[in-house]
Design goal:
The structure holds two protein chains of two kinds.
Chain A: H1 3-12, H2 20-31, H3 36-46, H4 50-59, E1 71-76, H5 79-83, H6 86-97, E2 110-115, E3 127-129, E4 132-134, H7 139-148
Parallel strand pairs in A: 1-2
Antiparallel strand pairs in A: 1-3, 3-4
Helix pairs in contact in A: 1-3, 2-3, 6-7
Chain B: E1 3-8, E2 11-16, H1 21-27, E3 51-56, E4 59-64, E5 75-77, H2 81-97, H3 102-111, H4 130-138, E6 144-147, E7 154-157, H5 159-165, H6 180-192
Parallel strand pairs in B: 1-5
Antiparallel strand pairs in B: 1-2, 3-4, 3-5, 6-7
Classes of the chains: A alpha+beta, B alpha+beta.
The complex binds iron/sulfur cluster and FE2/S2 (inorganic) cluster (FES).
Iron/sulfur cluster (SF4) binds next to α4 and α6 of chain B.
């Protein structure tokens, strides 16, 4: 993502400091992480000090300050998914990717995160890859899903 | 500015409107402990150590003296069994993070707080925000801020700003209620840490 793209997002929000989180969310959405150069640009244009941006970008889990893998994997470990065996789904995902929640593998192929409820408990246990929801999975089926992404 | 009369620890105290209970009490020589308060900074009300009993026209409540504005007829108690107990627990919790802080230990002996009550997790910082707010509000440099949240919250210097500003200032170091070295250490960390990872 280049400076122009960032400026476009900032201008879309009218360059208002109060919309800092919206701006960051949009950069995160397009770029999948928040590079330092992007944050510096936002700081400059919105006139919000870096210390504040740093605080906000580390406060919310929606933001990432490190590059993410090409495939973003979310395993729901909320109460319903937990009782329906989320931990074994997570094990299958960990086996396939070789990484723990919160990490990205060396080839930048996968990033794995756990989430606490996605709001569709009836589909549990849930595995979400790149925004696509896979529900009512067995661990073996979870492995199959993961294989489709390499 | 009008003058109001309030009662603090059974003493009649006169204070200017707009003052806080803490300022009024200190003006009258009544000591209330504080950790996150600083005269040049806006009240932050995070440490809660300054908690007092406030009676406003029959409504009693606990409030932080550092933020509560004075009012005509207010009745304030700065010490009671209940307040001492609250302060003792706060101190015990903070001492788990900064067991050797001189200021905390001084208050601990005053309130009978047991330094070993809770399992130690010496992060040294008690998140009072004095360094962060002083840099932002007084110096207007924003060289240091908080990062992360909850139990993982800590201070962090912005290396680019710190490199420019901190060497000639360092005014936040002596403000820290736990240790002069805390901010110094984090500053050095910021200036020596490797740069961010490159783009993939
Ligand atoms: S380093 Fe010290 S002054 Fe700064 S927030 Fe932590 S305890 Fe407060
Ligand atoms: S001094 Fe009042 S809350 Fe910290």
């Amino acid at each position: 993502m280049d400076i122009k793209g960032i400026d476009k997002i900032i201008e879309k929000h009218g360059g208002v400091a109060g919309l800092l989180i919206q701006v960051l969310l949009e950069i995160q959405g397009e770029n999948h992480w928040l590079p330092k150069e992007a944050l510096e640009r936002v700081s400059e244009r919105l006139r919000v000090p870096m210390s504040r941006i740093q605080h906000i970008a580390t406060f919310y889990k929606a933001f990432s300050l490190v590059p993410k893998g090409r495939h973003e994997v979310h395993v729901c470990t909320g109460t319903s998914c937990h009782v329906r065996g989320a931990s074994r789904i997570l094990d299958a995902v960990k086996d396939h990717t070789g990484i723990e929640p919160g990490e990205t593998d060396v080839d930048s192929k996968f990033s794995v995160e756990t989430v606490n409820c996605l709001g569709c408990c009836a589909l549990g246990p849930l595995l979400v890859v790149n925004g696509k929801t896979h529900g009512r999975l067995s661990p073996a089926e979870a492995s199959e899903v993961m294989k489709k992404y390499g | 500015m009008g003058i109001v009369t309030l009662t603090i620890d059974n003493r009649e105290v006169k204070a200017e409107e707009g003052m806080t209970v803490l300022e009024a009490a200190r003006g009258a020589g009544i000591e209330i402990p504080t950790l996150c308060w600083h005269e040049k900074l806006k009240p932050y009300t995070v440490c809660r150590i300054c908690v007092v009993d406030v009676d406003a026209r029959g409504w009693t409540s606990l409030d932080t003296a550092c933020s509560r504005p004075v009012k005509e007829g207010l009745v304030v108690r700065t010490r009671s069994a209940k307040i001492d107990r609250i302060r003792k627990t706060i101190l015990e919790l903070l001492l788990a993070h900064a067991p050797d802080s001189p200021k905390l230990r001084e208050y601990a002996s005053e309130y009978g707080a047991d330094r070993d009550r809770f399992e130690k997790d010496p992060s040294f910082c008690i998140d009072c925000g004095l360094c962060v707010r002083y840099c932002a509000e007084v110096k207007k440099k924003n060289a240091v801020g908080f990062v992360d949240r909850g139990i993982r919250r800590e201070i962090c210097f912005v290396p680019e700003v710190a490199l420019r500003e901190c060497n000639g200032c360092k005014e936040c170091f002596p403000l820290c209620p736990t240790s002069y070295l805390q901010a110094a250490f984090v500053l050095v960390q910021a200036l020596t840490a490797p740069a961010q990872p490159e783009k993939p």
